[in-house]
Amino acid sequence: MTGRSEEIGERLGSVRERIAAACRAAGREPDEVSLVVVTKFFPASDVRILADLGVTDVAENRHQEAVEKSAVCADLGLRWHFVGGLQSNKAAAVTGYASVVQSVDRAKLLRPLARGAAEQERMLDVLVQVSLDGPDSRHRSGVAPDGLAALADAVAAQDDLALRGVMAVAPLGDDAGDAFDRLAELHRSVLADHPDATWRSAGMSGDLEAAVARGATHVRVGSAVLGSRPPVQ
Protein backbone atom coordinates (compact mmCIF):
# COMPACT_ATOMS: atom_id res chain seq x y z
CA MET A 1 0.00 0.00 0.00
CA THR A 2 1.11 3.54 -0.66
CA GLY A 3 1.51 6.01 2.16
CA ARG A 4 -1.81 7.63 1.29
CA SER A 5 -3.57 4.27 1.15
CA GLU A 6 -2.20 3.38 4.57
CA GLU A 7 -3.29 6.74 6.00
CA ILE A 8 -6.82 6.44 4.65
CA GLY A 9 -7.00 2.79 5.70
CA GLU A 10 -6.07 3.64 9.28
CA ARG A 11 -8.51 6.53 9.45
CA LEU A 12 -11.29 4.49 7.88
CA GLY A 13 -10.70 1.67 10.33
CA SER A 14 -10.91 4.10 13.23
CA VAL A 15 -14.20 5.56 11.97
CA ARG A 16 -15.67 2.10 11.42
CA GLU A 17 -14.73 1.18 14.99
CA ARG A 18 -16.31 4.41 16.29
CA ILE A 19 -19.54 3.48 14.51
CA ALA A 20 -19.40 -0.08 15.83
CA ALA A 21 -18.75 1.13 19.40
CA ALA A 22 -21.60 3.64 19.18
CA CYS A 23 -23.89 0.88 17.94
CA ARG A 24 -22.88 -1.41 20.77
CA ALA A 25 -23.54 1.33 23.30
CA ALA A 26 -26.98 1.92 21.79
CA GLY A 27 -27.86 -1.78 21.56
CA ARG A 28 -27.78 -1.66 17.77
CA GLU A 29 -26.05 -3.81 15.16
CA PRO A 30 -23.19 -2.12 13.25
CA ASP A 31 -24.78 -3.01 9.92
CA GLU A 32 -27.75 -0.80 10.83
CA VAL A 33 -25.59 2.27 10.11
CA SER A 34 -24.20 3.06 6.65
CA LEU A 35 -21.03 5.10 6.29
CA VAL A 36 -21.10 7.70 3.52
CA VAL A 37 -17.64 9.20 2.97
CA VAL A 38 -17.72 12.85 1.93
CA THR A 39 -14.98 13.30 -0.67
CA LYS A 40 -15.39 16.98 -1.54
CA PHE A 41 -12.12 18.72 -2.40
CA PHE A 42 -10.26 15.39 -2.40
CA PRO A 43 -8.94 13.85 -5.65
CA ALA A 44 -10.36 10.93 -7.56
CA SER A 45 -7.31 8.92 -6.51
CA ASP A 46 -8.62 9.02 -2.92
CA VAL A 47 -12.00 7.78 -4.11
CA ARG A 48 -10.25 4.81 -5.73
CA ILE A 49 -8.45 4.05 -2.48
CA LEU A 50 -11.77 4.17 -0.62
CA ALA A 51 -13.33 1.75 -3.10
CA ASP A 52 -10.37 -0.63 -2.66
CA LEU A 53 -10.99 -0.48 1.10
CA GLY A 54 -14.61 -1.51 0.73
CA VAL A 55 -16.37 1.84 0.79
CA THR A 56 -19.52 1.73 -1.35
CA ASP A 57 -21.08 5.16 -0.71
CA VAL A 58 -19.42 8.52 -1.31
CA ALA A 59 -20.81 12.04 -1.24
CA GLU A 60 -20.17 15.38 -2.89
CA ASN A 61 -21.66 18.80 -2.30
CA ARG A 62 -20.44 20.72 -5.36
CA HIS A 63 -22.02 19.80 -8.68
CA GLN A 64 -19.13 20.49 -11.04
CA GLU A 65 -16.64 18.64 -8.90
CA ALA A 66 -19.05 15.72 -8.60
CA VAL A 67 -19.55 15.55 -12.38
CA GLU A 68 -15.85 15.33 -13.04
CA LYS A 69 -14.98 12.96 -10.20
CA SER A 70 -17.85 10.54 -10.80
CA ALA A 71 -16.94 10.32 -14.48
CA VAL A 72 -13.32 9.44 -13.70
CA CYS A 73 -14.50 6.86 -11.14
CA ALA A 74 -17.41 5.44 -13.15
CA ASP A 75 -15.83 1.98 -13.26
CA LEU A 76 -15.91 1.60 -9.46
CA GLY A 77 -19.64 0.96 -9.09
CA LEU A 78 -20.01 3.41 -6.22
CA ARG A 79 -23.26 4.92 -4.99
CA TRP A 80 -22.91 8.71 -5.22
CA HIS A 81 -24.83 10.94 -2.83
CA PHE A 82 -25.35 14.66 -3.38
CA VAL A 83 -25.42 16.42 -0.01
CA GLY A 84 -24.96 20.10 -0.81
CA GLY A 85 -27.19 23.04 -1.54
CA LEU A 86 -28.88 22.44 -4.88
CA GLN A 87 -29.95 25.02 -7.45
CA SER A 88 -33.13 24.18 -9.33
CA ASN A 89 -31.41 24.74 -12.69
CA LYS A 90 -28.77 22.12 -11.77
CA ALA A 91 -31.15 19.59 -10.23
CA ALA A 92 -31.82 17.54 -13.36
CA ALA A 93 -28.11 17.34 -14.13
CA VAL A 94 -27.31 15.96 -10.68
CA THR A 95 -29.28 12.82 -11.52
CA GLY A 96 -26.68 11.99 -14.16
CA TYR A 97 -24.35 10.67 -11.46
CA ALA A 98 -26.15 10.75 -8.10
CA SER A 99 -28.21 7.80 -6.93
CA VAL A 100 -29.22 9.70 -3.79
CA VAL A 101 -29.95 13.38 -3.20
CA GLN A 102 -29.92 14.03 0.53
CA SER A 103 -30.44 17.78 0.47
CA VAL A 104 -33.94 18.37 -0.92
CA ASP A 105 -35.25 21.34 1.04
CA ARG A 106 -37.93 22.87 -1.20
CA ALA A 107 -40.60 21.77 -3.62
CA LYS A 108 -39.09 23.73 -6.51
CA LEU A 109 -36.41 21.04 -6.85
CA LEU A 110 -38.80 18.15 -7.33
CA ARG A 111 -39.87 18.54 -10.97
CA PRO A 112 -36.33 18.88 -12.34
CA LEU A 113 -35.11 16.01 -10.18
CA ALA A 114 -37.98 13.82 -11.35
CA ARG A 115 -37.37 14.82 -14.97
CA GLY A 116 -33.69 13.95 -14.68
CA ALA A 117 -34.49 10.62 -13.04
CA ALA A 118 -36.94 9.78 -15.83
CA GLU A 119 -34.28 10.59 -18.41
CA GLN A 120 -31.89 8.25 -16.59
CA GLU A 121 -34.67 5.62 -16.53
CA ARG A 122 -34.29 4.92 -12.83
CA MET A 123 -35.75 5.98 -9.51
CA LEU A 124 -33.87 8.64 -7.58
CA ASP A 125 -33.61 8.18 -3.81
CA VAL A 126 -34.42 11.40 -1.99
CA LEU A 127 -34.00 12.60 1.58
CA VAL A 128 -35.74 15.73 2.79
CA GLN A 129 -33.29 17.99 4.58
CA VAL A 130 -34.88 19.56 7.64
CA SER A 131 -33.48 22.52 9.54
CA LEU A 132 -32.81 21.97 13.23
CA ASP A 133 -31.93 25.60 13.83
CA GLY A 134 -33.31 27.35 16.83
CA PRO A 135 -33.85 31.13 16.87
CA ASP A 136 -30.28 31.78 18.10
CA SER A 137 -28.49 29.22 15.91
CA ARG A 138 -26.30 29.94 12.92
CA HIS A 139 -28.45 29.04 9.92
CA ARG A 140 -28.06 25.75 8.11
CA SER A 141 -30.02 24.68 5.05
CA GLY A 142 -33.23 22.72 5.32
CA VAL A 143 -36.98 23.01 5.28
CA ALA A 144 -38.50 24.38 8.48
CA PRO A 145 -39.99 21.65 10.69
CA ASP A 146 -43.53 22.93 10.09
CA GLY A 147 -43.01 22.45 6.34
CA LEU A 148 -41.53 18.97 6.55
CA ALA A 149 -44.76 16.99 6.18
CA ALA A 150 -45.88 18.88 3.08
CA LEU A 151 -42.49 18.52 1.39
CA ALA A 152 -42.31 14.81 2.21
CA ASP A 153 -45.78 14.35 0.71
CA ALA A 154 -44.70 16.24 -2.41
CA VAL A 155 -41.63 14.04 -2.87
CA ALA A 156 -43.70 10.88 -2.45
CA ALA A 157 -46.16 12.11 -5.07
CA GLN A 158 -43.47 12.21 -7.79
CA ASP A 159 -43.41 9.04 -9.87
CA ASP A 160 -39.65 9.03 -10.43
CA LEU A 161 -38.59 9.96 -6.89
CA ALA A 162 -38.42 7.60 -3.91
CA LEU A 163 -38.83 9.25 -0.51
CA ARG A 164 -36.26 7.46 1.64
CA GLY A 165 -36.28 9.60 4.78
CA VAL A 166 -34.78 12.72 6.30
CA MET A 167 -31.40 14.39 6.66
CA ALA A 168 -30.15 17.10 8.99
CA VAL A 169 -27.04 18.81 10.30
CA ALA A 170 -26.70 19.68 13.98
CA PRO A 171 -26.66 23.48 14.33
CA LEU A 172 -23.28 25.01 15.10
CA GLY A 173 -22.89 25.72 18.78
CA ASP A 174 -25.86 23.60 19.83
CA ASP A 175 -25.75 20.29 21.65
CA ALA A 176 -25.72 17.62 18.95
CA GLY A 177 -27.64 15.15 21.08
CA ASP A 178 -30.48 17.60 21.60
CA ALA A 179 -30.53 18.37 17.87
CA PHE A 180 -30.68 14.70 16.91
CA ASP A 181 -33.43 14.11 19.46
CA ARG A 182 -35.46 16.73 17.59
CA LEU A 183 -34.65 15.03 14.30
CA ALA A 184 -35.79 11.66 15.67
CA GLU A 185 -39.14 13.18 16.63
CA LEU A 186 -39.54 14.80 13.23
CA HIS A 187 -38.58 11.57 11.49
CA ARG A 188 -41.24 9.68 13.43
CA SER A 189 -43.83 12.14 12.18
CA VAL A 190 -42.77 11.45 8.58
CA LEU A 191 -42.82 7.69 9.14
CA ALA A 192 -46.43 7.90 10.33
CA ASP A 193 -47.48 8.82 6.79
CA HIS A 194 -44.60 7.25 4.85
CA PRO A 195 -43.56 4.01 6.59
CA ASP A 196 -40.97 3.18 3.93
CA ALA A 197 -39.04 6.45 4.55
CA THR A 198 -36.76 4.75 7.06
CA TRP A 199 -33.44 6.49 6.36
CA ARG A 200 -32.19 9.09 8.83
CA SER A 201 -28.96 10.74 7.71
CA ALA A 202 -27.32 12.54 10.61
CA GLY A 203 -23.89 12.81 12.17
CA MET A 204 -20.53 13.84 10.81
CA SER A 205 -16.92 13.49 11.93
CA GLY A 206 -17.41 15.27 15.23
CA ASP A 207 -20.83 14.05 16.30
CA LEU A 208 -21.48 10.67 14.72
CA GLU A 209 -21.76 8.94 18.12
CA ALA A 210 -24.60 11.23 19.18
CA ALA A 211 -26.37 10.56 15.89
CA VAL A 212 -25.99 6.78 16.10
CA ALA A 213 -27.25 6.80 19.69
CA ARG A 214 -30.42 8.49 18.46
CA GLY A 215 -31.17 6.22 15.54
CA ALA A 216 -29.21 7.54 12.54
CA THR A 217 -29.10 5.04 9.69
CA HIS A 218 -26.49 6.97 7.69
CA VAL A 219 -23.54 9.07 8.85
CA ARG A 220 -21.69 11.46 6.54
CA VAL A 221 -17.98 11.54 7.40
CA GLY A 222 -15.27 13.44 5.58
CA SER A 223 -12.27 14.73 7.53
CA ALA A 224 -12.15 11.83 10.02
CA VAL A 225 -11.55 9.49 7.06
CA LEU A 226 -9.63 11.65 4.61
CA GLY A 227 -7.91 14.19 6.87
CA SER A 228 -7.86 17.94 6.62
CA ARG A 229 -9.25 19.21 3.38
CA PRO A 230 -6.73 20.43 0.81
CA PRO A 231 -6.87 24.10 -0.18
CA VAL A 232 -9.72 24.87 -2.59
CA GLN A 233 -8.36 25.44 -6.07
Alpha-beta classification? alpha/beta
Q: SSE order, as H and E?
A: HEHEHEHEHEHEHEHEH
> Mean pLDDT across all residues, rounded?
95
Shape: globular
* Count of runs of 4 or more consecutive helical residues: 9
Strand order of the largest sheet: 7-6-5-4-3-2-1-8
Residues in helix, %: 40-55%
β-strand percent reads: 15-25%
Low-confidence runs of at least 5 consecutive residues: none
Q: What separation lies between the terminal Cα atoms?
A: 27 Å
Task: Describe the sheet with the most strands.
Answer: 8 strands, parallel
Instruction: Write down how many β-strands occur, each being a DSSP E stretch of 2 or more residues.
Output: 8
Q: What is the rounded Rg?
A: 17 Å
Give a quick summary of the entry.
Helix content is 42%, strand content 16%. It has helices at residues 3-26, 44-52, 63-72, 88-94, 110-120, 148-156, 176-193, 208-213, 223-226, and strands at 34-38, 57-60, 79-82, 100-104, 124-129, 161-167, 199-201, 218-221. It is globular and about 50 Å long.
Question: Features of this protein?
Answer:
single chain; 233 residues; alpha/beta; 9 helices
Spell out the blueprint of helices and strands.
Blueprint: H1 3-26, E1 34-38, H2 44-52, E2 57-60, H3 63-72, E3 79-82, H4 88-94, E4 100-104, H5 110-120, E5 124-129, H6 148-156, E6 161-167, H7 176-193, E7 199-201, H8 208-213, E8 218-221, H9 223-226
Parallel strand pairs: 1-2, 1-8, 2-3, 3-4, 4-5, 5-6, 6-7
Helix pairs in contact: 4-5, 6-7
Question: How would you characterize this protein structure?
Answer:
The protein has 233 residues and is an alpha/beta fold. 42% of the residues lie in helices and 16% in strands. It has helices at 3-26, 44-52, 63-72, 88-94, 110-120, 148-156, 176-193, 208-213, 223-226, and strands at residues 34-38, 57-60, 79-82, 100-104, 124-129, 161-167, 199-201, 218-221. Strands 7-6-5-4-3-2-1-8 form an eight-stranded parallel β-sheet. It is globular. The chain starts with a helix and ends in a 7-residue tail after the last helix.
